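Usage

Read records sequentially. Each one opens with the input sequence:
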Amino acid sequence: MTSPQAPLPWDQLAQAARAARERAYAPYSHFAVGAALLDEQGRIHVGCNVENAAYPQGLCAEAVALGQLVLSGGTRVLAALVVGEAAQPVTPCGGCRQKLREFAGDDMPVWSADLHGITARHTLGALLPASFGPDHLGES
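and closes with the structure output:
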């Protein structure tokens, strides 16, 4: 199990997210994204974006990775890394920020990377300030 004080395996997360990105199904936008999430047991869960001809029906890489986390019995996200190639660092979209919030607190690190290295470092709280989460409903 990974403790919050243990060093986070950023190299492993980046490698896993880059490999997931290679499997992305992006025939419309040609914008491939990979994501890797570290859970409370030290496991890495990955996802890639999956587009659909009916555009709003596609899946973001982070949502796919969260599905893998839940399917594997994970309940907390300790760190997230997103890989995409763009002029600016690629961060989770607004919807995925809220999805991540279900499984993480404001202090959860969210790093962006491209094929060559880390491009930005944030926390979930910085990306989704004053968020609504399970603690508002008495859950945590």
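Summary fields computed downstream for this record:
- The radius of gyration is 14 Å.
- Strands lie at 33-39, 44-48, 77-84, 109-113, 118-123.
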